[in-house]
Amino acid sequence: MSGRIHSIESFGTVDGPGVRLVVFFQGCPMRCLYCHNPDTWKISGGLEMSVDEILALYDKNSSFYKKGGITATGGEPLLQIDFVTQLFEAARARGIHTCLDTSGITFTPKHPERIRRFDRLTASTNLVMLDIKHIDPQAHQILTGQHLDPVLAFARYLDKHSVPVWIRHVVVPDITYKQELLYRLGHFIGSLHNVEALDILPYHDMGKGKYQKLGISYPLEKVSPLDREEAAAARQIVLAGIQDEHHQKNCHQLLEAN
Fold this sequence. Notes:
Helices cover 40% and strands 20% of the residues. With 258 residues, it is of the alpha/beta class. The longest helix has 30 residues. Helix 1 packs across helix 2, helix 2 packs parallel to helix 3 and helix 6 crosses helix 8. 36% of the residues are buried. The protein has 8 helices and 8 strands, in the order βββαβαβαβααβαβαα. It has one domain: TIM Barrel, CATH 3.20.20.
């Protein structure tokens, strides 16, 4: 089996713990308005690579990856779930830490065969970086072109199976940078038991050049980037939502105990 790969970054430092080999998979069903990789959308693009070819690139710089590993990102790597599974199984057999960076959009909880494929994948996955684009269902569909339900169902699935998760969320002015939305996001995250980190990312428009090269209009042309101070403030609101969810849950448990 081969996978369609957009590109590979040899020394990634923001896609999981440590220094990592970051594999960008080709293809994505989402059309996020702030996407900075529109060149990954088409599943037909990229280069065909085998698991052995990718692991050979890892071996080339393995001394740098002792506290890192391999990250599958995209695009949306779960469009090629069987190849990601083979890559992760081969990596884990060699003691390599595996990280999946995904939106969870391909998760189908009512499809037994798909669930079996997800079970096999997560068995060889050390960490999932789950990108929750928007916490409001209608706004999520406007922002991404896809429904929110699969994303939240995937988060609950990972929680049920005790797979460690880092939550990522991009804060965009007038879209996700709203107190009520950030608080709701925190409430949802607070209902999970497997979240180890929270990464609130400020919106940037550094992908504009790619849109111009591809002849595509940039949807958020008039939206200014968010600064780090605003992102830090947004993170505090999400944390407040998490803490309140934990408090309510604890109070509920106390009432049940009495």
